[in-house]
Amino acid sequence: MNTRFAVATHILTFLAYQGGQPATSELIAASVNTNPTFIRRLLTQLAKAGLTTSQLGAGGGALLAHPASRISLLDVYRAIDEQQQVFALHDAPNPQCPVGRNIDAVLKGRMLEAERALQAQLAKTSIADLAADIAERNKVA
Amino acid sequence: MNTRFAVATHILTFLAYQGGQPATSELIAASVNTNPTFIRRLLTQLAKAGLTTSQLGAGGGALLAHPASRISLLDVYRAIDEQQQVFALHDAPNPQCPVGRNIDAVLKGRMLEAERALQAQLAKTSIADLAADIAERNKVA
DNA sequence: TTATGTGTAACCGAAATGGATACAGATAAT
DNA sequence: ATTATCTGTATCCATTTCGGTTACACATAA
To answer: Which of A121, A124, A139 has the most B C-beta neighbours within 10 Å, making it the best mutation to test the interface with B?
Structure first.
């Protein structure tokens, strides 16, 4: 998969760590080690999903729209991965073949089940959980 | 994701439907609606994973190496998706940042949990299940 | 009024994806 | 033995995706 989910999660965790202080795309980009445009593109998606807000102008930046404890990895997944399916079907199997005619319909159901299992697990982790894990690691070190 | 998992599953289901009769890559390609080389590439991977065997020469083709009831979608996933991870991390976050320094380690664990949930669900379906579903659909129609 | 920061468009190179051709080698059929 | 068949693999190609880069209009804070 692409790294957008990981980066989006990084962004949100970073914002949680900011404690209400707006973070510029440049600042976040430095933490992620990428470029500000990439961050802004993801922030746009996160904002559209209602997970973040943006403060324009000097001293502005991105903020969490909700408490970190109420943002789950599933929320991030849904905000970023527009198609929301790990598996892809192959185009247009042969309708003349008894297998080709039905494989998509049959496989789609099983893929959905797997997808649901994945999403259910993602729902169990919040950005606050990640922030806490990170705080723990920084405490020890 | 790419369509290789779907095509590999299609191949195996097709072979299950053949009832022990070898299928050429050309025949399978016609069912999938793709080219024989793509099928042979996947068959090579499936063979390496011990899921299929190949009969060379005239009248030859691919065969299931085990009963379809003993080949799960997880087996296919493992055979085809070499990296076996839905999620990717972003390269080299900033080690100077308290978040960047730890995000990968923390996120990796959560991704693994989700990956495991996905795989556990895949394990519940066998190629025989798919073949049965397809048979049912062909019966009704 | 000026500096700051977002949102978005445009362009780029690298990598991945699947399609197409080609051919050596193994095997079955005759 | 000879021929036809089929695999396994290499090579090349066009298309798409991915993330990086530059640029700039617009909104807002200082």
So the answer is: A121
